[in-house]
Amino acid sequence: MSPRTALRATSALALVAFATAAAAQDTTITIATVNNGDMIRMQGYTDLFTEETGIGVEWVTLEENVLRQRVTTDITTNGGQFDIMTIGMYETPIWGANGWLVPLDDLSEEYDVDDILPAMRGGLSHDGTLYAAPFYGESSMVMYRTDLMEQAGLEMPDAPTWQFIRQAAEAMTDPENEVYGICLRGKPGWGEGGAFITVAGNSFGARWFDQDWNAQFDQPEWEEALTFFVELMNDFGPPGYATNGFNENLSLFQQGRCGMWIDATVAASFVTNPADSSVADSVGFALAPNADGVEKRSNWLWAWALAIPAGTQKEDAAKQFIEWATSKDYIELVAENEGWANVPPGARNSLYENPAYQEVPFAAMTLDSINAADPTNPTVDPVPYIGIQFVAIPEFAGIATEVSQEFAEVYAGQQTVEEALANAQALTNDAMEAAGYR
Amino acid sequence: MARAVSTPRKIATTAVAWTIGLLIFFPIYWTILTSFKTEAQAIANPPLFWGFDFTLENYAVVQERSNYMRFLWNSVIIAGGSTLLGILVAVPAAWSMAFVPSRRTKDILLWMLSTKMLPAVGVLYPISLLFVQFGLLDTRIGLILVLMLINLPIIVWMLYTYFKEIPGEILEAARMDGAGLRQEILYVLTPMAIPGIASTVLLNVILAWNEAFWTLNLTAASAAPLTAFIASYSSPEGLFYAKLSAASTMAIAPILILGWFSQKQLVRGLTFGAVK
């Protein structure tokens, strides 16, 4: 080969290499997500997706509240920074209705969209159109210490009432050893303490709004629910519960300081993991409670889902990724490498039909809890909204954050239940009036 | 002449100063300590000060998961770039305010400072829209501009107070010797104000390094600095405090070291003007 030919061959090769690199560059999608265990695990597997499809993936991981603010700004200003966004059940129907998301109505046959749990599919749709694919879903349930229950001489029913929870909390509380009968969220914020007190309200027959969007905090059900919660926590909860959220309670439970904890079903895999939890081998599960004689239970429904913002230039690549990440194959991939207890839960029927998964201790209760939640009919009396621990209207996040702050002041002993409810009633009605609902 | 201070009093003030210093440093110390624990030890109650298994695992995990160097490089460029640009704009501005003040100079200075009183989120949408319009989203140059603008009032104020210390007669003498405006600023004023400029630069690098509103809201994948790196380890569902601490330690290490080496300049810069 003459030097000239060699040079030509090298340049041609270089050109091809460059072109391939450029092509690969063209299809890199950017995904905004939260730092939850299942999401981080998925990031570890994205190389496989890139190998399969040639589509590169850039991850932007943000704290939940920052993520919400960030993607909201991006969508409303048409910033186009993200090709896929991780959003929840609260945002999806609102954004879908606004035309901010690409409808996911043409997913492939092998994806089997009908396999998605109906409750999840319902909560991630607007007018029957799916706008986000659930990556994992959760409800809430009671997690309790089987050893402490036994010591107390009690047996946890599968579907306890609040009255039983109170009795058990009293029996398990042992302040000298810093063991508290019950740990619940009190931390202000619509997604923290706000979510919990809303579902607790549902299970006492309370509701946020009547059919004409009038606030209902002046009704006896709310007074009963809030009084019960405050007394329960003051008597048998950990000190300073007004500032406890999911992570604070998780930490308390893992250290063996809580007899019971009612919270997200995803916590089950944390508290039963011997590497992090000192009580891993003595945790039992039960449905979230209701007040005696009230048909609605206090379990919520949430999903972290992947959605495509309208206006992305890479819709096809984004869809391909969503199909991959929320597929049955992905679940199997994780199961194969990390065991069934670590697969993303709560999204697909087929997972719960899988005999291998049925052996996971919290699988059945998670599914029962999800199925017990109905976002389209969340309360005893009819309501004009969708959502269980939230009200799917854009104004809710702001209003509920303020209301949860009023309630947190009760938890901290700075005002009475009556004062908090009166304030909540006034501020909610004012905000709804300003927003034109009433 | 220095006032005579009795020994017990000296001991007392030293003890108080050390206590306050240690209190301020404690959160940083705790973060660093936590980064060497396992996740279970990180949340242990009572907290573990010693006697835990020292582990580097968190650093390994963070290294594996995130491209630290890319975040670091972005932080260096953004903090350095915005400070440099700020100084270029602020030196002439402070010169004119210090040496050729008009009737409105004081008002302008106050008005500049007042822009710092508006919460950043108040202008989130206007700035976002401008960024979309000019294609500046997720670019380093966009962030350099924004951080330069938000820190500019502080840079101008600091330089202004330094320049006020310099006798105007020296500049006058330079002018009599035939120096033009450019020469006057570059060869006479700047060399005399070097210590002041240096501490202004340092303070602004620190401010820009730690800025965590715009750097989170205007970036995505390519221009995200270390603030975004830390934020990516905060979790609403799950306890990853040890990893978060490792990420935080890695993020603050460069600026902490810079701070240690330039302590003298910083202290001088912050207390300048207090003593005339």
UniProtKB/TrEMBL annotation, chain A:
<keyword id="KW-0732">Signal</keyword>
<comment type="similarity">
    <text>Belongs to the bacterial solute-binding protein 1 family.</text>
</comment>
<feature type="signal peptide">
    <location>
        <begin position="1"/>
        <end position="24"/>
    </location>
</feature>
<dbReference type="GO" id="GO:0042597">
    <property type="term" value="C:periplasmic space"/>
</dbReference>
<dbReference type="InterPro" id="IPR050490">
    <property type="entry name" value="Bact_solute-bd_prot1"/>
</dbReference>
<dbReference type="InterPro" id="IPR006059">
    <property type="entry name" value="SBP"/>
</dbReference>
<protein>
    <submittedName>
        <fullName>Sugar ABC transporter substrate-binding protein</fullName>
    </submittedName>
</protein>
<dbReference type="Pfam" id="PF01547">
    <property type="entry name" value="SBP_bac_1"/>
</dbReference>
From TrEMBL, chain B:
<feature type="domain" description="ABC transmembrane type-1">
    <location>
        <begin position="72"/>
        <end position="262"/>
    </location>
</feature>
<dbReference type="InterPro" id="IPR035906">
    <property type="entry name" value="MetI-like_sf"/>
</dbReference>
<keyword id="KW-1133">Transmembrane helix</keyword>
<dbReference type="GO" id="GO:0005886">
    <property type="term" value="C:plasma membrane"/>
</dbReference>
<keyword id="KW-0472">Membrane</keyword>
<protein>
    <submittedName>
        <fullName>Carbohydrate ABC transporter permease</fullName>
    </submittedName>
</protein>
<keyword id="KW-0812">Transmembrane</keyword>
<feature type="transmembrane region" description="Helical">
    <location>
        <begin position="71"/>
        <end position="96"/>
    </location>
</feature>
<dbReference type="InterPro" id="IPR000515">
    <property type="entry name" value="MetI-like"/>
</dbReference>
<dbReference type="Pfam" id="PF00528">
    <property type="entry name" value="BPD_transp_1"/>
</dbReference>
<feature type="transmembrane region" description="Helical">
    <location>
        <begin position="213"/>
        <end position="233"/>
    </location>
</feature>
<feature type="transmembrane region" description="Helical">
    <location>
        <begin position="141"/>
        <end position="163"/>
    </location>
</feature>
<dbReference type="GO" id="GO:0055085">
    <property type="term" value="P:transmembrane transport"/>
</dbReference>
<keyword id="KW-1003">Cell membrane</keyword>
<feature type="transmembrane region" description="Helical">
    <location>
        <begin position="184"/>
        <end position="207"/>
    </location>
</feature>
<comment type="similarity">
    <text>Belongs to the binding-protein-dependent transport system permease family.</text>
</comment>
<feature type="transmembrane region" description="Helical">
    <location>
        <begin position="108"/>
        <end position="135"/>
    </location>
</feature>
<feature type="transmembrane region" description="Helical">
    <location>
        <begin position="240"/>
        <end position="261"/>
    </location>
</feature>
<dbReference type="InterPro" id="IPR050901">
    <property type="entry name" value="BP-dep_ABC_trans_perm"/>
</dbReference>
<feature type="transmembrane region" description="Helical">
    <location>
        <begin position="12"/>
        <end position="32"/>
    </location>
</feature>
<keyword id="KW-0813">Transport</keyword>
